[in-house]
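Milestone M4 deliverable, item 7.
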Amino acid sequence: MRVITGSAKGRLLKPPRNRKIRPTADKVKNAFFNMVGNAVRGGSFLDLFAGTGSMGIEALSRGVARCVFVDKGKDSLRLIKENLYRTGFQKGADVLNCDFTRALKVLKKNGELFDIIYIDPPYHLYRIDVILSIINDYRLLVSGGFIGVERDRRENFAWLEGAPFQLKQQKVYGDTRLIFLSTGAC
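Output delivered:
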């Protein structure tokens, strides 16, 4: 695992020791940031179900001003903090060690807004439609903002029909489907 490009290009990230944490593959990470383009620079990024922190760290390396990492696992918390230290991005980062529903409530209460949100929960454990509805109801995404969703490619994607955000693109990389959504005000 490594940072692909930007100010921390080539820095190695500490991988997980157990299989419960599934880091985003470099190919998927690169594809997502290619879809986002320059919108990442100077913006804010929310890394939901952050795991190792590799997506948020990649965003920081590419010029995001601030990133919030959310994960409830103690191993994930340790990995995120260690990887932030390895890359020197502790200053631009906030780490919330709690369940995503609690984290989203805290972010709403604090009046947070994000330019980009990346959602990568354990496959088959969370309903993406519920997560997207909460994000929409709490108005956590700026107008013209982007959401990336990483899921198992074999999953039923019927939830896309009623999603509160517009589908812009989706691609399959091995067992992973990367879904790119936006508010539509781009």
